[in-house]
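Please fill in the sequence for the structure shown.

STRUCTURE ENCODING:
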């Protein structure tokens, strides 16, 4: 941030910047985004084998 930008800010904006409100707000937004991504990933469809028969090896042990 340049001096010009800082000089043109209101005192309220400067106070919020010094208090770290913007940083806390960004952290909250990031956490909400992460929670939403987790929900989407957990609710997504899973891939399953198309064959209904289990595959067996030569020794008749189940191969996964």
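FILLED IN BY: designer on duty
SEQUENCE:
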């Amino acid at each position: 941030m340049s001096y010009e930008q800082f000089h043109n800010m209101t005192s309220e904006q400067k106070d919020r910047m010094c208090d770290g409100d913007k940083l806390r707000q960004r952290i909250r937004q990031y956490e909400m985004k992460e929670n939403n991504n987790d929900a989407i990933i957990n609710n997504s469809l899973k891939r399953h084998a198309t064959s209904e028969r289990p595959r067996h090896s030569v020794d008749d042990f189940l191969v996964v």
